[in-house]
Amino acid sequence: MSNRLRALAFGLVGATAMAGPAFAVDLEITCRCVIGGVNSATAEWIQNSVIPAFEAANPDTKVTLNQFGGEDAQLTQQLALDFSTGAGPDVTAFDGFLIPSFVEGGLLKPLNEVAGPEVDDWSGWAALSEGSRALMIYEDQYYGIPLGTDVRMLYTRKDMLTEAGIDAETWQPTSWADILDAARAIKKVKPDSFPIQLNAGVAMGEATTMQGYWLALLGTGETVLDENGKWIVGSQGILDTLNLYKTIYVDEQLGDARAQLLADGRNRSFANFRDGVTALLFEGDYFYRSVTPEGSEFAVPDRDKVMGWVKIPAEEPGKGIRGQDFVTISGGTGFVLNPATDTPKEAWALLSFMNEPARLEAFQAIQPRITARTDVAIPNSPFLTESSQELLPITTARPNDPDYNAVSAEIQRMTESVVSGELSPEDAMAQYRDAVIRIVGEDNTVSLL
Description:
InterPro entries: Bact_solute-bd_prot1, SBP. This protein is of the alpha/beta class. It has helices spanning about 5-15, 40-55, 70-85, 100-105, 110-115, 130-135, 160-165, 175-190, 205-215, 235-250, 265-275, 285-290, 305, 345-355, 355-365, 380-390, 405-420, 425-440, and strands at about 25-30, 60-65, 90-95, 135-140, 140, 145-150, 150-155, 195, 230-235, 280-285, 305-310, 310-315, 325, 330-335, 445. Helix 9 packs across helix 17 and helix 17 (about 405-420) packs antiparallel against helix 18 (about 425-440).
């Protein structure tokens, strides 16, 4: 609802039902977050810290949090519809990789175009790390403020490794073969287990691309683009990655193939790890800070004793991207302004306010995370401190390209066709090639075979 309509609604209610005071400004903020549910800490932070402090500093303003509990893709679709019709929240959480496609579709505008020159004067820009700053930039323009970044690793159930005769405290795989051998050892002593979780399939959306496909592909020394910015549609790296999926899910049943095809498959993968069905799970630090804490649905009992993490190895030592032995990838979310907001100055005031150190430190008190600002520390979290120090120096990021989202969907279909047994890796790659050519044009693709 537009602010004008909301103001009218408040006036009518006040005149007829004496429902409470009217406000000069009424702002809405949306995130994929629900207190007690998905991303609960984010919802708690906005509802209990950001909103009260902002309203106290701006007594003529009312801020309402819309808690969205659906999947990421559902929120993306809703925002695309809202922004295309001039509706939707004034401020919304937003995944940085979506910015190029929204901009090219006319659905987002630079912050300073929406709210004016005061955006450029915000002192917080200088405090953002270079990597996190890039998350919300497209063609040298800021479209949002990043909340934080992340890294990806291989989580381990140390109890299951120990049961398989592996020293869980010192185990650090240096190749894909090491991971497969560990999974086979676990499967031997626990026949009903699915030791490995490498996300696949359409249902998991971008979690398949980023927590699955990317983490294998980077280990082959490739990314989705070549050095000239062309989309790679045929390569040994793609085949090696798809054959890894085939080994895990089809040939040796080291992973739960059915979970990759279910609408709630990602939650099932979390439950499998929680319940000791899966021992080796490829995921982001989100899994530690948001999924497995005590009291959450997928909390791991005695987590800090039972759960560990290791770096993700390249296919073979030295074969990873940039000649690395280990690989990871970082993404991140932030908040953007609705380009059609009726109160752009006030919306920017809220967005910048929530990204000041005092508010971010309040968030860190609820849930420590890798921050976007260099002047906000990670408090009392050895896990996040150690993992960020180890992995941020070797990380990479998704391409800042408006076609990425559509290509990513084809990556998800390609992995699903292999995991389901529908297609061979060769045929799945051929289908992917044809789909990407339709999206970006043949001149913008390349085959390395």
